[in-house]
Amino acid sequence: MAHDQAAVREVLEAARAEGRTALTAPEGRKICQAYGISTPGEGVATSADEAVSLAEEIGLPVVLKIVSPDILHKTEAGGVLVGLADLDAVRAGYDRIVASARSYDPEASIDGVQVQAMVGAGHEVIIGAVTDQTFGKVVAFGLGGVLVEVLKDVTFRLAPLSGDDALGMLDDIRAADVLRGVRGAEAADRGALANMIERVGALVGDFPEIAEVDLNPVFATSDGATAADVRILLDADPAIAPARLSREEILTGMNRIFKPRAVAVIGASGETGKIGNSVMRNLINGGYRGHIYPINPKASEILGLPAYPSIADVPGEVDVAVFAIPAKFVPAALEDAGRKGVAGAIMIPSGFAETGNVEGQQEVVEIARKHGVRVLGPNIYGYYYTPENLCATFCTPYDVKGGVALTSQSGGIGMAILGFSRTTGMGVSAIVGVGNKADVDEDDLLTFFEQDDNTNCVAMHLEDLKDGRGFVEAAQRMVAKKPVIVLKAGRTAMGARAAGSHTGALAGDDKVYDDILRQAGVVRAPGLNDMLEYARALPLMPAPKGENVVIITGAGGSGVLLSDACVDNGLTLMEIPPDLDEAFRAYIPPFGAAGNPVDITGGEPPSTYENTIRLGLADPRVHALVIGYWHTIVTPPMVFAELVARVVAEERAKGNDKPVVASLAGDTEVEQACDHLFANGVIAYPYTTERPVAVLGAKYRWARAAGLLRG
């Protein structure tokens, strides 16, 4: 895709020389031409006679637009006239537009009037780009025209982007079917639209000083796409991309932090109730096998271990220093830790940026960088890494080992993670607080967990991202191997962004987060309990190999709700082929219902559940099963749970390994039945049809992102 970067640079430098941050429409058209973005035929007139001549040359009807670097919103200034069909109208229109512009802003510099071929056929869409404070350059696509900010049917991707990502944007808006042509309407040229999206992404990727691009409307027909209006804003001081460590540098530090040979506790205490005492007790009682060095200038021994006045006095090497001292003492102690060669500083103390002490936090970061120390925190509860029996925290210990790593930006959320893990018996590899994220953030942790054989799933609570692009790159690497689940707090808050353009006004923070997290392949959880349940369940479920989902239910009402839940979660209910339909009918009563859902009715014995479930598992055309159970004395809950666990295990042994989720309705006995099913790798929940299907939907979202589904 060839671009004339020199032509763009010439336009941008001319604007910069004049101190302008907004390009005129003709300048915008030059940039579009340089990047192969189609615009209507046009010219700039400086008199009514020139306007008439241009209209004759271009062909009627035409549009007239004021050209002024000082008038950004042309319509508000009365600076746009549309559909001028004869030359007299063009002559009069020129004078009218100039008069309106001068009335709107008497001080405005007016370069002339743009005479543009009238484009009005096809679908109106918007294509643009904004500079997001988290993700940098972001491309937008959606419905255009006058209703764009009312309907807000728009989607975002990181720029630059691939042709496949651009095509995906066309399908990602609610009005996607409109562009395909409905009720006899003409379909839009998808290739032309995707090409224009890709070119806008390339433009802003090549020129960081372009703050916003707004092509609205773009008219899309069956044989092309044309940007009828172009608006480009510049950034006088473009943001510099954050510096990033290499993957190897990150892993060097993270491996020493998560697998330390020695841990020092700065501020260790023998007094119960002190944070330094709690950290020491957790390290000792948790079974950590490395060296533990308490640091306290007023003690010679703490909890049976020799204490040292400073980390500098420790005789051996130290990988991790846990700070349990007030914020004002941190800088000096960190200097000592840095000179000692510590890899990680675990900053439990509060009193930094979260309380307004930004300078103090920056001082800590600068000291750490000088010595090559990675800082976790400050303002955190610490961290757990169960493979090393490492409990470096002042909170309650946790030692149930498993494959789920969880991180949180909030201490309270961290403790909710801990309680949920304990109640459900969910084994974890790590629980990590990131707090203020002065240094170590989610990118670093994903880089470690990606290659950590003890971790097979990561769930993250976050309030913001320091480096959105760094996160996306790390997440995409990990998603190819393991699920990444994210709970993004603040999804209802709109960014305080000036509505300088349609594209800018549409770029609410959460919408950008939502689309780009999806672009990264991340599974986004709507709430805290959802995140925890996804983390608990996804590692237990085999990945589906295709999209065909079959519901088998003992209750018609549950079947309807389960069907609704499948649709809500983007799952495809299989169209049962005739031979499989006949096979199901052989096992269900005449008053039951085959099809999908397969309704075996409530009064059936265990054998009916067993036969239909086994059939669904054995048929390779079925890729996932959703089971709806209704409590009866004929098939009690534990009988149902034991037979499902047995049948699933037997079929998995034969290679029929597919996800199975179950919804159990009944008396309280169904709770024990769900526990038994979970313990045997079948995801089951009592009293809900929505939760098991939501978990299955989350597994499917990851499997699609990881490219695991056939077709």
UniProtKB/TrEMBL annotation:
PROSITE patterns in the cross-refs: ATP_GRASP (PS50975)
Residue ranges occupied by any ATP-grasp domain in the UniProt entry: 29-65
Molecular function GO labels: ligase activity
Record flagged with keyword ATP-binding: yes
Keyword annotations of the record: ATP-binding, Ligase, Nucleotide-binding
Gene3D superfamilies documented for this protein: ATP-grasp fold, A domain, ATP-grasp fold, B domain, NAD(P)-binding Rossmann-like Domain, Succinyl-CoA synthetase domains
Keyword Magnesium (UniProt): no
SMART domains documented for this protein: CoA_binding
Pfam families: ATP-grasp_5 (PF13549), CoA_binding_2 (PF13380), Ligase_CoA_2 (PF19045), Succ_CoA_lig (PF13607)
UniProt-listed PANTHER family: COA BINDING DOMAIN CONTAINING PROTEIN, PEPTIDYL-LYSINE N-ACETYLTRANSFERASE PATZ
Protein name: Acetate--CoA ligase family protein
Species annotation: Streptosporangium oxazolinicum
